[in-house]
Specification:
The complex is a heterodimer. By secondary structure, chain A is an alpha+beta fold. Helices cover about 40% and strands about 20% of the residues of chain A. Chain B is an all-alpha fold. In chain B, helix 1 packs antiparallel against helix 3 and helix 2 packs across helix 3. Classes of the chains: A alpha+beta, B mainly alpha.
């Protein structure tokens, strides 16, 4: 069934990593996958630009308030002590990436990566001002005329405006966006806000406007290690060389069999649409971000020629020569189980976080103090953090030590999100048996729905 | 370094700036999740008023300076190796042309 295919040796790819860069002019393309990516662009960028403006209970719905060290996500409030959950979330994100890469290849790169999504928008703005691919190439080669200056400045104006808006939105996740908008209107922006808006705006402008595919090729660590997650059943975009070769131009009416040709008509459409400027017909390459632009381009050509679609298609290494696709395999199962377990643990953990933080710090200067009535006292600082937005009325009690009495505080009422430092003294009239007693302070609210235990020490003089 | 092309030099700068930025960002997140910059200010220079925002920024740029220095040092140590392979491939190219 298989026929021999002539192999051409290409120059060493590692050398090209540092070769002089040639500008890529991706051709505009319409098709199934281009429309899917457009939907992804709208959904993801829509979320990014809209979310900071959403309100929840009279405050910004999603706000990472760094100066106050509190993160608000919809109805949840996260404190620095909840950093564990952020770490957990990052691990989940990492394993999701592994899982989706093992199953479907570089889905992330093609549809969801901010680099892809913002580049798509910048390319669209470029197209609006400078025209289609051939017009852009001509314009760049042409001398500076009035029209060229006008077109280029219009593009720069749109790019810079969009980049600044992006930077503004980004900072809006960390500073209340309504106040920020107010400050921008009155031109009274704080130094750090202005700096980060410009910094993020500049990064967007540079990455999406100029660096583009070079970010994926040279800067992205994922592109370098994604091959470790690939196997023979991972979805890849591939050219069917068995069907396409030998390639060659022909008339639409000609029968390729009599000409001794494969289905590839060498129209180069797949090369022109590629945002990273590669030829997919050379096989799987590190530069390919799996955007599927070449599939759309080739399918359109196949339709025109009256050939079957799929000369370039999503396939796997096993399927290409006619094998079966195996979705369930040890690698995907392990990732799926890990992902499922971590997600459930995260969901349970985040909704069952302790509503109160209690810290009991022993006085550093004196271990104990004798009182005039012959008793012993230890002093502490009690730190309380109400992690909820509701008021909490709290009681204190020492477990298993009836001889220890709490002096100074009886009941404490904490407002929502209130942090309190309180002095706390423990008093006893009878000398404990041990020089060093382990104690447990119990902090509970009225109905017992909140109950936090905190360990501590009680010191007394050595028994005579 | 003189025989290095402009692109290679740019690649060197990128290889220093980008990973060090990435590492500094990660280090800042972990560090400031545990340490409150206003408490840090209290135990270091209590007579200066350092806001949390300023504290975060100082921390980030300090981390970046460290990681940037480390990456730059790595490049400096690797330069002779690259230079050697560059020269070898250049002379191999010459030899091939001679034949």
């Amino acid at each position: 069934m298989s026929k021999p295919i002539a192999i051409t040796i290409l120059p060493d790819a590692s050398e090209s990593l540092y070769a002089a860069h040639a500008k890529v002019y991706p051709r505009e393309i319409d098709g199934r996958f281009a429309r899917m990516r457009l939907a992804a662009v709208f959904a993801l960028l829509g979320l990014f630009y809209l979310v900071p403006w959403l309100r929840w209970d009279g405050r910004q719905a999603v706000l990472f308030d760094l100066p106050a060290r509190k993160f608000y996500v919809l109805g949840l409030t996260f404190w620095p002590q909840d950093f564990f959950w952020l770490t957990c979330l990052l691990i989940i994100a990492g394993i999701s990436l592994f899982f989706f890469t093992a199953v479907a290849g570089r889905l992330w790169c093609g549809y969801a990566c901010p680099q892809t999504v913002w580049t798509e928008v910048f390319l669209w703005l470029e197209r609006v001002c400078e025209g289609r691919r051939n017009q852009r190439i001509k314009l760049d080669a042409a001398p500076w005329t009035r029209e060229k200056i006008l077109r280029k400045s219009a593009k720069q104006f749109l790019w810079v405006t969009f980049a600044l808006w992006t930077g503004f939105t980004f900072v809006g996740f960390f500073t209340p966006i309504l106040e920020l908008a107010h400050e921008v209107r009155r031109a009274s922006l704080g130094g750090w806000e202005a700096f980060w808006i410009l910094f993020y705006g500049f990064a967007t402008y540079g990455n999406a406007g100029y660096l583009r595919e070079q970010v994926c090729k040279y800067m992205c660590p994922y592109a370098r290690f994604q091959s470790a997650m690939f196997d023979h059943d991972t979805l890849i975009i591939s050219y069917d060389a068995q069907r396409g070769e030998p390639r060659g131009a022909r008339k639409r009416s000609a029968d390729p069999k009599t000409l001794g040709l494969g289905d590839c008509i060498e129209c180069e459409a797949c090369v022109q649409v590629c945002p990273t400027g590669i030829d997919i017909r050379h096989g799987l390459q590190i530069e390919c971000i799996a955007c599927a632009g070449c599939i759309d381009a080739c399918d359109a050509v196949m339709d025109k020629m009256g050939y079957a679609r799929g000369l370039i298609r999503y396939t796997t290494e096993n399927m290409l020569p006619g094998g079966e696709r195996r979705l369930l395999r040890p690698r995907t199962l392990v990732y799926a189980v890990l992902l499922g377990g971590l997600l459930s643990a995260f969901a349970w953990g985040v909704t069952h976080r302790a509503p109160l933080i209690v810290e009991l710090l022993h006085d550093r200067n004196a271990l104990y103090r004798r009182t005039s009535d012959g008793g012993i006292e230890n002093s502490y600082t009690l730190k309380l953090v109400n992690k909820t937005d509701a008021r909490q009325r709290l009681h204190f009690q020492i477990e298993d030590h009836p001889e220890l009495r709490i002096v100074g505080i009886g009941e404490v009422v904490l407002a929502g999100s209130e942090v309190a430092d309180l002095p706390l003294t423990l008093h006893t009239e009878q000398l404990p048996h041990e020089h060093h007693e382990h104690i447990e302070l119990v902090v509970a609210n009225d109905d017992g729905s909140v109950r936090v235990e905190q360990k501590g020490e009680f010191f007394a003089p050595e028994a005579p | 370094m003189n025989s290095f092309s402009r692109d290679r030099r740019l690649a060197c700068i990128g290889a220093i700036a980008w990973p060090s930025f990435f590492a500094a960002a990660a280090a800042s997140v972990v560090f400031f999740a545990i340490v409150d910059p206003s408490e840090l200010a209290e135990i270091t220079w209590p007579h200066l008023t350092i806001s949390r925002k300023l504290g975060y920024s100082i921390g980030f740029f300090m981390f970046w300076a460290c990681t940037f220095g480390s990456s730059a040092f790595s490049v400096l140590l690797l330069l002779p190796v690259w230079q050697k392979s560059h020269d070898e491939s250049a002379s191999a190219g010459d030899a091939a042309n001679d034949v």
